[in-house]
Amino acid sequence: MTMALKTRRRAMRVGVVIGLILGAIFAAAPVLWMLSSSFKSNTEIFELPPRLLTEKLSFDAYIAIFTDPEKLRFFLNSYIVAGFVTLLTLVVAIQAAYAFSRFEFRGKRLLNITIVSVQAVPPITLLIPYFGLVVALGLYNTYPGLIFTYMVFTLPYAIIMMTGYLNTLPRELDEAVRVDGAGSFTALWRVLVPISVPGIVSVGVYTFMIAWNEYLFALTLTRTVDMRTVPIGIQLLMGQHSYEWNEIMAMSILGSIPVLVLFLFFQRYFISGLTSGSVKS
Amino acid sequence: MQPLIAPDTETLVLGPDKGGIRRRRSQARKTAESYGFLAPTLILLVVLMVVPIVMVVGYSFQDNVILNKSPQFVGLDNFVAVVTDPAFLNAISNTLIFTVTSVVAHLVLGLTFAMLLNSELIGRVPRAIFRALYILPWLFTAAVIAVLWRMLFAPNGVINFLLGTNVEWLASPELALSSVTFINIWAGYPFFMVSLLAGLQGIPAELNEAARVDGANGVQRFFNVTIPQLRPIIVSLVLLDLIWTSQQFALIWLTTGGGPINVTEMLSTYTYKLAFSKYDFSLASTSAVLVLLMSMVLAYFYVRHQRARD
Lengths: 281, 310
Known about the structure:
A: mainly alpha, 13 helices, B: mainly alpha
């Protein structure tokens, strides 16, 4: 009996481990291939049989990117746009979240439904009027044109996440300050914001990632190479050099590093933010 | 990258419990104060949502918008033109196949990986390593995923080498739709996996224990304990994924561009091409309004489901 049970348990463990390894190959092999290709010479990439580990490590692709001002400009643009989007989104969302978390007011329910629904509005639907508006306002091919339009994606999530975070903080904290005669604005920025740093950081990182990865608006609302962001830069590289795959892969790696680094450092917040959103019975 | 959280409406809907009713004047002051804090949000919502949607609906009833200085009102002509366009119907059919296949596969893969990671048969360290590997595809933006798979799927690429085949995965009319769907499946399952893993960890151990004592085997416990417990999360995830996947643009645009001969044309690429390749902003607006209506149907179910859960 116990022997049979032990054997069954061992068989199950072998099954689980095999499943896990197969899954890991499915998930990670393409990423490894990208990394490996970025260190190959372009002729080696399609050599047969393909080798995961290259014989002679080549940094040519990375050097080509770091010595090309046009490509570095893609990164600069992405940092500027994502940075400003994050800053503005945080300032606006923190105040909205404070109202949602601490006040009862007329229209709260309707506004809540609106904010949740905004997330379902297709970007392609907004693209055509945005194009019209951005051109009319003289913001075509400028940073503000991108920054303001991106906020339609970042704001709803930021408000929802931030409200959830503020709800976990006791009301007595900020109410005490208000009773002492300070205004709500002071209570928010002097009392709540300083102790909300973990929440604010995770919302900020998340906002940054959305903005860093945006493609459709970046493609349509900018025109000149010096205004393009990283995702468009990758696409341009693809067209320009008729498939210098090592450089395209190096650009992809470099373009993913900010998100990878942010995720690595803040994944605990994300996962818990995610679970608080989705795990409710 | 897809958004990382399933939005939690509960916190917004209920807010903190207010004990007792204060005086009316204080209430009016609070409402005024609330709107003070909400003013920037409201302005942005109006400028970025209300105005554009009114604009695009307006465009859809006119001819030659944006290019023509004084467009004419044409009633439902644009809607008739789009709905009877075989290319539009083809885009709907492709979007449907792409979306439903992706969502089902995301759920199955996400649940499988979550169950594997949640298994008590593996230690803490291997669990953490495997989880990190499984999350990887989530961390790359659509542009990166697109160029990566274009390289892997190239005729002389590594996939063909491993399978011993010699096919044009993304350029053949027979294979292109399956290929982009596969790429999208690879890119999207981690969102399900992470959410379902959290859900699995939230299932009280006593439930499984009780079922075990009652003599339920693993399969029975899966269908009678695990799945019912995960049901609310699964419904939320499926609705969100239907909304997002049906709107996918970048991945299609950067792998096949809707080709070859329109076999991967989605509603998003169809609409985009009407506007920015053919410069027919009126028809594009009409198509965009139709896409909006379809998304709002899904959004309605999503909001209703979230409220029911609360």
